[in-house]
Hints:
The structure is a single chain. The protein has a four-stranded mixed beta sheet. The protein has a four-stranded mixed beta sheet with strand order 2-15-17-16. The chain is α/β, with parallel strands linked by helices. It folds into two domains: 3-19 and 239-426, Alpha-beta prism (UDP-n-acetylglucosamine1-carboxyvinyl-transferase, Chain), CATH 3.65.10.10; 22-236, UDP-n-acetylglucosamine1-carboxyvinyl-transferase, Chain. It has helices at 22-31, 48-60, 93-96, 106-113, 132-140, 172-183, 198-209, 241-253, 269-277, 316-323, 344-349, 380-392, 403-408, 412-418, and strands at 3-7, 13-17, 38-44, 63-71, 74-82, 90-91, 115-119, 144-148, 151-155, 164-166, 188-192, 213-215, 221-225, 233-236, 257-261, 281-284, 288-292, 303-304, 329-333, 353-357, 361-365, 374-375, 396-399, 422-426.
Amino acid sequence: MDKIKIVGGNILNGKIYISGAKNAALPLVCASLLSPNQIVLKNVPQLSDITFLNSLLAYMGLKISEKDEMFDGHLSKTYTYQADDIKELIAPYDFVRKMRASYYVLGPLLARFHHVEFSLPGGCAIGARPMDIHLSSLEQMGAQVEIKNGYVIADAPNGLKGAHIIFSKASVGATCNILMAATLADGITRIENAAKEPEIGNLIDLLTAMGAKIFGRDTSILTIEGVKELHGATHAVIADRIEAGSYAIAAAITKGRIELVNVEAEHLQQPLRTLEKMGVLVEEKENSVVIDARDKTIIGEDIYTDYYPGFPTDLQAQFMALMTIAEGASLVTESIWENRFMHVPELCRMGANINIHGHASAIVRGVKKLSGAPVMATDLRASFALILAGLAAEGETIVNRVYHLDRGYEKLEEKLKAVGANIERIKEAD
Length: 430
Ligand code: UD1
């Protein structure tokens, strides 16, 4: 398994192009199952999660082609999807266990083909991750849902029906799934307590371009008037706010200056305001954000993760890495996932001073220096937190289990090297 070696201490300086958002691209790709016509997606990031989802959909019969294209000044992938010959309505365990987001096939397949079989994904490193909201909502839309041999088997022989659904939690995944399902349902669906993450706005824009009728974008009440069929469309994936936030911290933790290009600053308001409170200069431009921490003292600050527009849980670990070298203490409260402090013991092995209280809170007391060490993380964002700690630490850090990073950070070493990091991938046979 590959490793990443970092020699810490370099001050990062330059520009980083931000890729298309993984968490936006995954539901967009699955939305192509809703129509027999071509869906063209631009600015799709090159990540193992996307390659993986593509292989599941190709197994089902989706036709997929790709090409390299310039998008907003950087080279990226454009994919064309066509679901005019779907033969398989089963998402097998071997696919789903490797990537939970395969659950995005549920809504589209049930809506268009009235049947789907889907292996239940089970838990993962950051929590139990149930799917009850997805499944009970589909039941409210008239589906019969049965769980058998580890599979969800859902049928809607006469098609899905519009329903008034109130989510118990503002789940991102359930909002995307039920939105997609409702586009082809008979009648009007109203989702209350829907998630408002920018990735959902991106999905609504594609569905609307395909002919769906959706009202309430960016609000917690979504109304969808079902239509008989959806047509083809061309659409672009939005910039990855979590990747952008991660590199913003790379600038801050090395006391450098990085311009993040192709960023929607509006999507990053909480993290950017937090960086300012921590003493970093943030300049928002039309299509970019400059993070300048040169000669700045980083100060401790508290964060509380929450649903958008609250502070994103997917940046909690990275901010914690920055807090380890801040002056004073920081309190981190994780309100979304019940087990998202797996990076703490690894940061402590690098010299950080962090105490976890209960499941949800951690106190970080800043130290003068971190020191390099061999480390590993159990999830994607935690792995990036260790990269950040390695960039700031004295000496050499080896980050193991690089496959996590390959799921969510496109061209990671290339991007960091270009701004001056001493980083390389050590290839190892599996
Ligand atoms: C998505 C993101 C993930 C991010 C999370 C929260 C993708 C592929 N992943 O995950 O990176 O950390 O949003 O911003 O986009 N819940 C239930 N029942 C359900 C569904 C969810 O109780 O049926 C709970 C979860 O346990 C969690 C909360 O709702 O406590 C939010 O989860 P959700 O928004 O669904 O996360 P994902 O869509 O899986």
